């Protein structure tokens, strides 16, 4: 695709050697603006040279080599730039007149408001109150020259740009651009069912990860590679997914059942990050390894089978949290690019 575009550009450039182009429609990168030889700024007004009353200035630009422009028959052309039209009214002059001679209305005469100037002259600037107001209005550039021009600001001083909300500005309705979360109603409504919960089986379950229930009995996957059933206060191992191991921290040998869920027939589907996906008969404790971590899937061995979900037709969905790192090296998985699926 890139090649095609480059070819089209080359071809278009080739065409332009023999024809003349409307240089105002050139794309970025095909011209330089302003022409580096041109001195853009008028030192008197400190605005673009030749700024018109329409606040536009024609700036000479240079088309790339080989492009000939329609208007000039060579590579120079003019582009309209936005600028501030000035008509000789200096900001510092207006402000100083306002501060020192505002009571005689000289600032208003200077800026071209003779009526207000006269009124100020005869009332001593509305007894100095109007003078104070005018100082503020001029200092904040709310009042400018009467002819609509901009102040000449020394050294590109901080000219104020007033932005107004008009037809051409668009006001975003905050309601429209925010997706509010769904209201917490029905099943999602707040309740206090956990308020009276108490700790259960404290000290007798080590590292419980996942729970599932069947026919009124609760099952949990725990550290050491076991899935247990829980009756009253009794915890009974029903299956061990990994191999016999001496210490629980030898996870890679012991196995470490994580997510589990019953299918419709009461078989327990369990994910073990080191050994894969198992189907367990909870009565006999028999296990079948449905998916082994030794087998590559799409080029990668699963490294952290983590969660399972059983569909109503018996299909099993499971997540593989990493194809780069084992669970025991999970910290690296957190620090590196994601490789889960
Ligand atoms: C390009 O053409 C314009 C007028 O057609 C002329 O004023 C200008 O000097 C020319 N520039 C060059 C670089 O030849
Ligand atoms: C804004 O829109 C109204 C009606 O659509 C139009 O009459 C008016 O001229 C517009 N104003 C500007 C500044 O475009
Ligand atoms: C459910 O549990 C009861 C006893 O609590 C037992 O009699 C029954 O056979 C169990 N059903 C299944 C399907 O395991
Ligand atoms: C829990 O598992 C043990 C061992 O498999 C079994 O004897 C016991 O009946 C189970 N308890 C329940 C309530 O299923
Ligand atoms: C449940 O058992 C029936 C009959 O043995 C079998 O046809 C079906 O495939 C089983 N369903 C699942 C989800 O294992």
TrEMBL record:
For whether the record's keyword set contains Transmembrane helix, the answer is yes
GO cellular component, alphabetical, reads: membrane
Q: How does it sit in the membrane?
A: Multi-pass membrane protein
Q: Which residues cross the membrane?
A: 88-106, 118-139
Q: Where in the cell is it found?
A: Membrane
Which species is this UniProt entry from?
A: Brassicogethes aeneus
For this entry, the protein name equals TM2 domain-containing protein
Pfam families from the entry?
Answer: SSL_N, TM2
Q: Which UniProt keywords apply?
A: Glycoprotein, Membrane, Signal, Transmembrane, Transmembrane helix
Residues in the signal sequence? 1-19
- PANTHER family named among the record's database cross-references: BETA-AMYLOID BINDING PROTEIN-RELATED, TM2 DOMAIN-CONTAINING PROTEIN 1
Q: Where is the TM2 domain?
A: 90-136
Q: What is its main location?
A: membrane
Question: Family, per the entry?
Answer: Belongs to the TM2 family.
Record's InterPro entries?
Answer: 6-blade_b-propeller_TolB-like, TM2, TM2D1-3-like
């Amino acid at each position: 695709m890139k090649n095609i575009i480059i070819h089209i550009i080359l071809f278009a450039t080739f065409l332009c050697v023999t024809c003349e182009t409307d240089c105002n429609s050139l794309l970025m990168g095909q011209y330089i603006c302003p022409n580096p030889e041109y001195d853009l700024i008028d030192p008197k007004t400190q605005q673009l040279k030749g700024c018109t009353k329409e606040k536009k200035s024609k700036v000479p630009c240079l088309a790339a080599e080989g492009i000939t422009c329609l208007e000039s028959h060579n590579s120079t052309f003019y582009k309209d730039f936005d600028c501030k039209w000035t008509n000789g009214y200096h900001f510092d002059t207006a402000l100083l007149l306002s501060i020192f001679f505002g009571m005689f209305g000289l600032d208003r005469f200077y800026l071209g408001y003779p009526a207000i100037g006269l009124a100020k002259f005869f009332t001593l600037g509305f007894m100095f109150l109007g003078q104070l107001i005018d100082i503020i209005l001029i200092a904040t550039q709310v009042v400018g020259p009467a002819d609509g021009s901009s102040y000449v600001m020394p050294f590109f001083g901080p000219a104020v740009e007033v932005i107004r909300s008009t037809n051409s500005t668009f006001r975003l309705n905050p309601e429209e651009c925010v997706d509010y979360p769904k209201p917490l109603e029905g099943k999602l409504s707040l309740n206090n069912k956990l308020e009276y919960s108490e700790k259960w089986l404290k000290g007798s379950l080590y590292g419980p990860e996942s729970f599932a229930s069947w026919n009124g009995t609760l099952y949990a996957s725990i550290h050491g590679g076991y899935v247990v059933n829980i009756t009253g206060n009794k915890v009974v191992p029903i299956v061990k997914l990994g191999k016999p191991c001496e210490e629980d921290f030898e996870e890679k040998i012991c196995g470490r059942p994580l997510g589990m869920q019953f299918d419709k027939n009461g078989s327990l589907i369990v994910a073990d990050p080191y050994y894969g996906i198992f189907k367990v008969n909870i009565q006999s404790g028999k296990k079948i390894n449905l998916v082994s971590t030794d087998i590559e899937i799409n080029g990668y061995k699963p490294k952290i089978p983590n969660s399972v979900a059983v569909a109503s037709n018996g299909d099993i969905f499971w997540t593989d949290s990493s194809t780069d790192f084992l669970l025991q090296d999970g910290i690296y998985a957190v620090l590196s690019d994601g490789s889960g699926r």
